[in-house]
Amino acid sequence: MSFQQGLSGLNAAARNLDVIGNNVANTNTVGFKQSQAQFADVYANSLSNGTQPGLGVKVAAVAQQFSQGGITASNNSLDIAISGNGFYRLSDQGSISYSRNGQFHPDKDGYIVNSSGLRLTGYTADAAGQINAGAPSDIQISTADLPPRATTSVNTLVNLDSREAALSSAAFDPADSTTYHSFIPMPIHDSLGNSSTVSTYFVKTAANSWDVFASSEGTLLNGGAPLGALNFLSTGGLDPSSSAIFSVTKPVTTGADSVVFDMDFTGTTQFGSNFGVNALAEDGYASGRLTGFDVGADGMIRGSYSSGKILNLGQVVLANFSNPQGLQIQGDNAWTESSASGAPLVGAPNTGGLGSLQSGAVEDSNVELTSELVNMITAQRVYQANAQTIKTYDQLLQTLVNLR
């Protein structure tokens, strides 16, 4: 006769209640993952003929359940929820940990940190907004003014009306609308970010052939000669044997360098319909101050500037593990890598099985309070039943003691 089975049951039930209690306590903890007590039976090491009753129960593991939590909107653009697999990669002076809690804010130096001061890591961006997808590093948002960029390319996509009559003998004059068929004003920027306008004029000189002129602020560019000619096939598309990219130089008087840029008409058509501008874009911009930023589903941090420019400032990365339950719990909503978890698989969101991000939202705890309360009642009954086993053993022993 032994108290071992009942005592082990009491210990296991008490440990189960600890786990349940911790789940309930963290119902409102952002990114928290509930745990589950897992049990195993206990037998003596010696073999028997099948009549061994066993020595009770033990807690084999307390396993966290990494199921998806609900997503709740918030008012902070740096609250970021993960939908799917993955963990945020956080740095504490080079010491790396991982978390599902996406409540972040900028610190005094512009680094994106959590409530414990750990820095969010990701890919950096260069001055042009190109992402450097190398080793992840601490993400820092610069609040410095965006430097201006001089225009180097203007992409223009138009349709020229094939029904227009050629003006082969007319001398081009931007002040005389009878010397050209249509024109487009377009903004460009010099090296100091000053904006000016270059107007492009189209003159049909022969069937399927158009000269392109340009002027700015009353001055003809290229010495008044055409920048080049757009030649078309009978189908209305550009003739691939002739160039549709013209080099333009615009002198400036602002103290900046002259603006030298390519005017690209690739894709332009000549159909029997009215003249129309289908696309017009330049790569230059003025300086501007950062007015805000947000995080896309792909982790891209995009800054908005007062000049109207939107620039990539960096990209958040996620990490996943072959065995997330092998991660070492550190508290403060953080885990660290262990030999049981495997090495981290780091990449951009929405790639390689990693989840996507949602800005202005948080992932709720995955604790289901109703289920935990039911589990609590069950654990209580198990505890009472094991206590009853011990009480029964005690009564039997008392009977033996009372024998005379």
The mean pLDDT is 92
Could you name the ranges where pLDDT drops below 50 across 5 or more consecutive residues? none
Which structural category fits the helices and strands? Answer: mainly beta
Distance between the termini: 20 Å
Please count the helical segments: 2
Q: Helicity level, as a percent range?
A: 10-25%
Q: What percent strand? A: 35-45%
**Main β-sheet: number of strands, strand sense, barrel status?**
9 strands, antiparallel
Shape: rod-shaped
Radius of gyration: 36 Å
The total of beta strands comes to: 29
Give an overview in words.
14% of the residues lie in helices and 39% in strands. The protein contains 2 helices and 29 strands. It has helices spanning 4-25, 369-402, and strands at residues 35-42, 56-64, 71-73, 80-83, 87-92, 95-99, 105-106, 112-113, 119-125, 131-138, 153-161, 182-189, 195-206, 209-216, 219-220, 228-231, 245-250, 259-264, 269-271, 276-282, 290-295, 300-305, 310-316, 318-320, 328-331, 334-336, 345-347, 356-359, 361-363. Strands 5, 6, 9, 10, 21, 22, 23, 24 and 27 form a 9-stranded antiparallel β-sheet that branches. Strands 11, 17, 18, 19 and 20 form a 5-stranded mixed β-sheet that branches. Strands 12, 13, 14, 15 and 16 form a 5-stranded antiparallel β-sheet that branches. Helix 1 (4-25) packs antiparallel against helix 2 (369-402). The longest helix has 34 residues, at 369-402. The two termini are 20 Å apart. The mean pLDDT is 92.
